[in-house]
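BUG: 3D viewer hangs when loading the predicted structure for this chain

Environment: internal workstation, default settings.
Expected: structure renders.
Actual: progress bar stalls at 90%.

Input used:
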Amino acid sequence: MSRKLPLAEGQASRTACARVLLRDAVDERTGELLTAARLAQRAGWCADLVSGMTTALLHEHWNGADVEMLASGVDACGRKLPSNAWMALRRLGWTVNAPEGVRVNDRIVRMAQEQAGRVLRAASWRADLTAAVVATWPGDPRRRTPQEWDAVRQAAPGGRPLPSNVITARTRQIATFLKARGRLPADVFELEGVPRAARMLLLSACDRQQAGIERSESDPRRAVLRLQLPVRPDPRTYRDWTWVACPITLPPTVPAGAVLHLPTLRITEHITDRITDGKVRADLAYTHAVPATRRSGHTVALGVDWGLNTLLSAPPPACPTTAASPPSGTAPSSEPPESWPSNTACAACPNTCTPKPATTSDSSTASAQSATRHQSVIRHQSVIRRWRVNTCRRANTLWRVNTSGCGTRFSTCRHADPISTTRWRALPRGGPSIRPSPPARASSTWKTCDRWKPAAWAPP
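Structure tokens produced before the viewer hung:
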């Protein structure tokens, strides 16, 4: 099965991931049907071997010098390191062996090196952030001054767009270390300690000698994952490893023409009343074809997502006050984009914004272009007013935003009372103002328009 996705003209490839559950399997040597618990047990034996070698690698290289060398992207000879973590670790000479008396193939070692390399690469950014927070330690860790915020953002990597709660969480962690030991940590490796290795199998680091996946020819919604698993927790010879076939039912989100990649297996086991019950879940990556990105002709939409410091976050759309950006290497044009409306009447303010009719003269043409731009600006401002989001937050309360037509309706959803009466009115600038029903505590506060203030409660 080819891992390359055939693309037609005007298409591009996109990689996504889907979570599937392995419910059963078949041992190809003996023909035994493996239940979900038995499959989780055998996969868990393999994951324990991998996590043990991963832990040994992390204990050996959990220091600033090795993490900086791996994050630099070059080896001691100045050659560029491979993108795969296990190949980069082998280039640097960071190897690991299986426990004494245990026989594993080289692909099991690859998975351990891949997992350890990913953890060490991820620690590089945390090390830089910790060093920046320690170097600009504030006088009061609970409340920084504006000057101290500017200092830590300037010292941290990519600190300007970094969310404030990330810096605050790191400051709180360092403050706990300071309170316990009476000094600041030297680096993140002293602050956090050696991380634990997860019980998972990164099959993407293997080849067909360890694992393979094939889609069914008769039913595109089914696939078969084949991999080698041990028959005992401490395999002594290669005969203690057998091929296991795991049927997979693909979710509807996976297109029929998508190319499947080797998944990551995550093993969870629960012991109840001396009975071990476990499950194996697979994070299945797949690549499918999508329309290629166009430089023009897009449909503008507003994306609203869960926020960090607020409940909802929504970026304002771009305001097309000038002509569209020209391609690289060409001079900018003074003509408006073709996507702008051709009429010059301004529907937002017909009484105060009535441009002159277009004529063949240059002055009339410029006036029509200016009126068209003004109309786009007014329309853009109208969209912002209609989609203005004022976030409110309160304990045990979830706010939902429902859009119907041109208006925005806000309703509350609580544990005891699913629907609570909410009234809203339009502000002079067009944004909604939230006035919910009286809460259980009179001291409750709401976050409205980015300001904390006590709510003036009155009978609805």
